Amino acid sequence: MRKLLPIYLCALLSIILFSCKKNNIEDTGIPEITGTITGKVVSPNNRTPIRYALVFISTGKKLYSTYTDTEGNFSLTAAAGLQQELHVQTGHGDKFRSIIQVDVIANQTTPLSDLLRLNQVGNFAYLAGSYDKIENILIDSLGYNAQSLNSNSIQNIAGIANYNALFIDCGAYNTYVNPNIDSAFSNFVSGGGSLYMSDYSMDFLTGQNALTACPAPRYYGFIDDSTVCSRRTGAVSVVPNAHVVSPELQYFLGKDSMSISYNLGTWERIQSIDNNFWQTMITDPTDNSPLLIRTNQYSNGNINAPFVGSRDSSQVTICHQMGNGSSITITVNANSVADHLAHGDSMGMCNNPNQSGWIYFTTFHNEHNGQISEDVKHILEFMILNL
Q: Which residues contact 335 (CB under 8 A, 6 or more apart)?
């Protein structure tokens, strides 16, 4: 098993990267002539603004970047020049991205004439559940696509290898975990695929027997029981002023607290967690227990684990070194990779030595009637866009 990198590095980089909402222009000490591009990024339905999308122009040696605000608006200052590629992406750019040509006019602000739609470039699938309906947010609210799976599809890696991300709803068909599913999910994440899991779907992570007190071992599950333990002890309630501790989520929401309503008579409360493996993003203020966690530190050590999902050989994901000492993961045209490498960049995602996919686990989720708060809806959108 390859040694896991502490998740604190990811959190530290997030603080550095997202503490400033202004343009991030690398400082080379060379005066240059610049112009500004403004616009608005939306989902394919043209209705939903895309918050916290990275917008950038890359010259190989230099990256000009900014982020959209809570209304999807952005203002990017870059070197003047005609027919430049303006990139917009969420996450690492391997699942959602768009590229358009723009003219950056010297000493002028040029607004885009049309809304800039963020395209889906990855393949997604979901396992429908009795309680969660994340697919409604993905398909109806955002306007993206996903394939419905059945319980047979997840019994081996061949059934899910074509997807970049899987969404496993709470109460997913009451499918019972078993060694076949464990192996499929383990190889899926190790091969770069990402997972969204909600509430009762913790069974797929650490196994069943969630009524037994922690740290009693669970049966099956592909995540080591020592990394997280939960019990179905949550009750119908409202958690007021839940702490949004992730800098990324704070920027995405425009606030650092929110209320979360739990409608199930029992729900998974996280009892213990390995903070070197998981990043806590939202906590309950009463006991500081995690309500939303994620990790990209999982690997089964199988160097022959198949790469999963759609592949576009014309686009390459790299770790770009910023002039201020930080780094950022971006997906760029393959013909610009040589310039990036000469600049000191590296292949693959930053702070992810195993190049594994993300795993998000949330104790709250969408409801079948869709009656959730706007804040919860936005958090679900964040998880979809940043898998």
A: none
For residues 161 and 309, give the distance between their C-alpha atoms in angstroms, rounded to a whole number.
Answer: 6
CB 59, CB 79: distance < 8 Å: yes
Q: Is the dihedral of CA 163, 167, 172, 178 positive or negative?
A: positive
**Which amino acid is residue 124, in one-letter code?**
F
223 located within any domain: yes
Beta bridge partners of 102: 84
Residue at 55 is within a domain: no
Residue 298's CATH number: 3.40.50.880
Give residue 172's domain range: 124-303+354-385
* Residue 158 domain-assigned (yes or no): yes
Beta carbons within 8 Å of 105's beta carbon, 6+ residues apart: 35, 80
List the Cα angle 94/298/200 in 5-degree steps: 95
Single-letter residue type at 363: T
What is the DSSP-derived secondary structure letter of residue 128? -
What are the tens digits of pLDDT across the range 19-66?
444 455 555 556 789 999 999 999 999 989 999 999 999 976 689 999
Outline where DSSP puts E strands in 245-289.
257-262, 267-273, 279-283
192: burial class by Cβ within 10 Å (0-12, 13-18, 19+)? Answer: buried
For the chain, residues with pLDDT lower than 70 are 1-30, 60-61, 173-174, 210-211
User: Residue 39: phi, psi to the nearest 5?
Assistant: 180, -175
* Number of domains the chain contains: 1
How far apart are alpha carbons 109 and 111 in whole angstroms? Answer: 7
- Number of CB atoms found within 10 A of residue 287's CB: 7
What does pTM read for this prediction? 0.89
Q: What is the pLDDT of residue 11?
A: 42
- Report pLDDT digits (tens) over 350-377: 988 888 999 999 999 999 888 899 999 9
- Assess contact for 90 and 120: CB atoms under 8 A: no
The per-residue pLDDT for 23 is 58
| C-alpha triplet 70, 252, 168: angle, nearest 5° | 120
Report the C-alpha gap between 344 and 39 in whole angstroms.
31
Distance CA 299, CA 276 (A): 14
pLDDT attached to residue 368: 87
Strands 34-42 and 109-111: parallel
d(CA 318, CA 47): 31
